[in-house]
Write a structure and sequence with these properties.
The chain is 71% helix and 1% strand.
């Protein structure tokens, strides 16, 4: 009997190892359902543990088998796997938990799994408590992804269990690689849960007692937990973005981010900026009043931010992307602390104007464009003070000239918006106190603002049309996918694993610095994600701002602005009139929506 068990296990191993080939050829694929039902299903209840384990492994290899019956076989298989989650043998439990992640994505599985979701989660927690296996935690993450809409009632329990599991795996010691990988997977799972409950911000506050100590542990301790820092910063971003307020305990993370940046985690700057911006935006007064004890002494929070920006801009190993990310902190301060940081404008200008001087001849304008975003923000913050700073350094003419040139290369929404707001804000200053270089250039500034604002309106209309077309194309593609009947005998097998790998590489190439390094791509290509940037500037409609400021300037100094209008080309005048009409329509539409 023992020999038969061994032979059966060897036969299943051979079949499973050939799964890609068998599934890829139509003449074999049609026989696999029978193989599973007659040769694999019975072994889920075998008295021999390694056959039960091998049966769970076979599910992982043949999860994409096409079931031709009324769904009974799939339901039976799911029930068999669920039973093995509580198998007496731990290796069987582990293989069953891994098998379930594959079955979850099969059409028809959700109806069987959803009613027992709480029990499934409890089984995974129990297995995780017994062993630190990263694949078990990865399988749990698939469940969380698949049942995102239904996971909300279990979110607090999930985060509590995952936080506890993370702490347990961390205590396993540096030599336990499996535990270390499982700990990382726990944090990734937590981030997935947090992403799924973004419409319930009160839950983030409920989870604070579990998550905040975890984040502080990773940020502190002199980098002992640096392998988990990326996940901790992701979690911190959720905790600082979605809740209405930030607790005093969570504010303890603010100086820890600076110390980590300064002493052992400089390369994580891009992940540090989002939570820092959330701290600033969520409570500007607390940010400006806050002080921290650091290795450099007691330092105000705003000075910590200025130190981060200055060190990043000055550091030779900083990529231009990191420089741009750091400079965005200046934007956030200017947007969120209006009227409260006048004394910091000189220090800002010292940094970003020096960087602009270094970048003036660069063929890639991205960093210059970011600097102009900051200048636009500073002009919108206080145009008169910012113009004084430019004049003090004797660079007013050069800055505006370069700005006008680079404005033509701006393709993204944020730099365009801040250019419109910044240039338009100049019109708020009476011409009697404008620098001569600016007052003589008002027609050019107005022309640039009109051109960019008009382009933004056109692109918004175009994007709306493209979204409608994309939805129609997705429906057509879904219909085409239903017609696929497998690979012919003479066709090459397409590997889903290879396709997923290439997709991951593509995402890496378009995303993180690590991905760019692995692929050998140019780090300084356009990779800034303005869509993720949020601040009070989002509430400023650039079209209405331009409309109101232009009309106010004409009323304030009609003679001067009549001369300005005379210096504008007929095309600009016509575009300006169209913007006025569009602004009136937008204001009327907004009033109707609120009434």
């Amino acid at each position: 009997a023992s020999k038969n068990h061994t032979e059966k296990e060897g036969a299943l191993l051979a079949f499973g190892s050939l799964s890609e080939i068998l599934l890829g050829k139509k003449k074999y694929a049609t026989e696999l359902e029978g193989l599973m039902v007659t040769s694999v299903f019975p072994d889920f209840n075998s008295p021999v543990a390694f056959l039960r384990c091998r049966s769970c492994w076979m599910v992982q290899r043949f999860s994409t088998v096409k079931w031709t019956d009324d769904g009974t076989n799939l339901r039976t298989l799911i029930q068999l796997v669920l039973q093995r989650l509580s198998d007496p043998a731990l290796p069987v439990q582990i293989e069953a938990s891994k098998a379930l992640r594959y079955l979850i994505e099969v059409d028809g599985a959700e109806a069987t799994l959803l009613p027992v979701l709480p029990q499934i989660l409890n089984e995974y927690f129990r297995i995780m408590n017994e062993i630190g296996n990263d694949e078990v935690v990865a399988a749990l993450q698939v469940i969380i992804d698949q049942f995102g809409d239904q996971i909300e009632p279990h979110a607090v329990a999930l985060v509590t269990q995952l936080s506890s599991a993370f702490s347990k795996y961390c205590q396993a010691g540096d030599d336990d690689d499996d535990a270390a990988m499982a700990a990382a997977q726990c944090l990734e799972c937590i981030a997935t849960v947090l992403k799924g409950i973004c419409e319930r911000p009160e839950l983030y506050t409920t989870m604070g007692p579990q998550l905040i100590p975890l984040v502080l542990q990773i940020l502190g301790n002199d980098g002992d937990y640096i392998e988990y820092l990326e996940y901790a910063l992701d979690i911190l971003t959720f905790l600082t973005y979605f809740p209405d307020t930030i607790s005093p305990q969570l504010w303890e993370a603010f100086p820890l981010i600076y110390v980590a940046f300064d002493q052992w985690a400089f390369d994580y700057l891009n992940l540090m900026v989002p939570p820092l911006e959330n701290f600033i935006g969520k409570s500007p007064q607390q940010f400006l009043a806050g002080k921290a004890v650091t290795p450099e002494g007691t330092v105000s929070y705003i000075d910590l931010i200025f130190s981060i920006v200055a060190k990043t801009v000055a550091e030779e190993r900083s990529s231009e992307n990191e420089v741009r990310k750091a400079l965005s902190l200046y934007m956030t301060i200017l947007h969120c602390c209006r009227g409260m940081v006048d004394n910091y404008l000189p220090a800002m200008n010292d940094i970003f104007l020096a960087k602009l001087g270094q970048q003036v001849n660069s063929d890639v304008p991205l960093t210059r464009i970011t600097i102009f975003q900051v200048i636009g923000s500073a002009l919108h913050y206080n145009p008169q003070l910012q113009l004084v700073e430019l004049e003090k350094r004797g660079v007013t003419q050069q800055v505006f000239t370069q700005w006008m040139q680079d404005a033509e290369k701006m393709e993204r929404w944020l730099p365009r918006k801040l250019t419109v707001l910044g240039l338009t804000s100049v019109l708020l200053v009476p011409t009697s106190v404008l620098p001569a270089a600016v007052s003589t250039s008002i027609p050019q500034l107005v022309s640039a603002a009109v051109t960019i604002a008009n382009r933004m309106e056109e692109d918004a209309d175009k994007e709306e049309n493209e979204e409608e077309n994309a939805i129609e194309e997705e429906v057509e593609e879904a219909d085409d996918d239903d017609l696929f009947e497998g690979f012919g005998e003479d066709e090459d097998v397409t590997s889903e694993a290879d396709e997923a790998y290439m997709e991951a590489l593509t995402k890496l190439k378009s995303g993180s610095d690590v991905g760019r390094f692995l692929i050998g791509d140019d780090w300084d290509q356009e990779d800034d994600d303005d869509e993720m940037y949020t601040s009070p500037i989002d509430d400023v409609n650039q079209l209405l701002y331009f409309n109101d400021t232009m009309k106010s300037a004409f009323q304030r100094e009609p003679e001067f602005y009549q001369q300005v209008q005379g210096a504008l080309s007929s095309d600009i005048v016509n575009s300006c009139q169209k913007l006025f009409v569009a602004a009136d329509a937008a204001r009327e539409k907004s009033s109707q929506a609120t009434s």
